[in-house]
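Readers outside the structure-tokenisation community will struggle with the description of the input data as it stands. Showing the layout once, in full, would remove most of the difficulty. For illustration, here is how one protein appears when written out as sequence plus structure tokens:
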Amino acid sequence: MKKTTGQRKNKKQRGFSSHGWGSKKKHRGAGNRGGKGNAGSGKRADTKRPTIINLHGTVDLAKRGFVRPDAKKIIAINLRDLSLIVEKKNVNELDLNKIGYSKLLGTGNLSKAVKITVKMASKKAVEKVKNAGGEVILTK
């Protein structure tokens, strides 16, 4: 049928459930395919998936993430607190590793010469112990 002058074709697809996209299934979002990462490759994707799952344990390789390593737990003691222990126990040698401390810090002063064994120590702490006539031995 020929159009008359001024007549326009109406493009509204009333009553069409697919609205020009073929099957209803075809015009859906990426959720229909399990996300954008699974789009494409057509019928070949089914043969690839078992291999990917066997190699990597999952299809979503980008979503595996990582496990952050635990932070090193440093248990420190100040010279002020250490001097109280030295006075109480009346010792000349002290192994802080056995007591449960891993670092010696320099707040406070030592009045007695003590030989201290510890994993880590600040520069100030070592300096103050040497000034008191003691010694700091660093272990690993």
